[in-house]
Amino acid sequence: MLRSALAHWGYEVVLAENGEQAWKILAEPDPPPMAILDWVMPHLTGPEVCRRVRETHREPYTYILLLTSKNTKGETVEGLEAGADDYIVKPFDQHELQVRLRAGKRIIDLQMDLLQAREELRERANKDLLTMLPNRPAIASALEQEIARCHRDHRTVGVILLDIDHFKKINDTYGHFAGDAVLRETAARLRSNMRPYDRVGRYGGEEFLVVLPNCDLEQAKNQAERMRQKLHATTMLVDGAELRVSASFGVTVSDAAERDQDVFVRVADEALYLAKGSGRNCVQILTLGESAQKRG
Questions:
Q1: CA distance 232 to 71
Q2: Which pLDDT tens digit goes with each residue over 156-202?
């Protein structure tokens, strides 16, 4: 009777024959957003299923309504303390049940809206809104995670730091809107010339940081050269003007000892400085050992 009524009201119904089966359904990766549980069921009672669901602290939230013949204040409190959101006493009135389910659906819909808003805020917090690439904290975190993974798996990770050549001149000559367009097009060209698991982010101003998992120094250098050619090969159309943009690339690679991502960025920056000193629009490589020797 309950299944027939729920289907008539437009709900998609999943039926559980006992408490254990109900718990298994609610523990699945994509459980129903609402559950009506009888208080007394074989294997697990309704309150026991409630407790298990709430102990998982899962998102999105599962709204639980207890169906019970118990109608004392103490038993009602017990059901709510177990994690039920509402209850209805048997024999139930269908109209009352329908109204209570509508209230539950409003709560579920509000929670889904909040989760979506939170995800959008999280995405905005991790993205550079001009280029839509990961921002500096996000790409730095990606590098840190990749370094830890590569140490665990005994692999290497390539690091590229690149800087658009004479970017200030572009802003001064064509304006900041043109500079923004150049940054967006640069981001698009870099992103289109990478493996699916490589990462690129805007590191600051006109600088971009590229993380290349499972990549040795020679492979990282070749990837930087491909990016340099892709960027410089064709002009960019900006406000009716055709601009040929280039960048300087500094490349390094992780070793078996160093785990600090700031060290790799610093060495890549030193290599980038060498590229600028070599006339720009080129790639320079520098290992951690070579950097230490220069400082020594």
A1: 77
A2: 999 999 999 999 999 999 999 999 999 999 999 999 989 999 999 99
CATH code matching the domain that covers 136-295, chosen among 3.30.70.270, 3.40.50.300, 3.30.499.10, 3.30.70.20: 3.30.70.270
Alpha-carbon span 163 to 183, nearest angstrom? 11
Angstrom distance (rounded) from CA 54 to CA 176: 52
Angle of CA points 25, 29, 35, to nearest 5°: 40
Q: What phi, psi does 110 have (nearest 5°)? A: -65, -40
Q: CB of 164 within 8 A of CB of 182?
A: yes
Assess whether 206 carries a catalytic annotation.
yes
pTM score, two decimals? 0.67
Angle in degrees, 0-180, between the axes of helices 46-55 and 19-26, rounded to the nearest 10:
20
Q: What is the dihedral of CA 214, 218, 223, 228, to 10 degrees?
A: 150
Q: Among residues 48, 206, 218, 290, which one is catalytic?
A: 206
Length of the chain: 296
Q: Name the one residue in this structure whose structure tokens are 């900041």.
A: 176
Q: Per residue in 108-124, pLDDT tens?
A: 999 899 988 888 888 78
Q: Which CATH class is domain 2-125?
A: alpha beta
Which residues in the chain belong to E strands, given as ranges?
Answer: 34-38, 63-68, 86-89, 157-164, 199-204, 207-213, 236-238, 241-243, 247-253, 283-285
Going by C-beta distance under 8 Å and a sequence separation of 6 or more, which residues neighbour residue 194?
A: 200, 210, 223
Host H or E run for residue 220: helix 217-233
What's the start-to-end Cα distance of the chain, in Å?
83
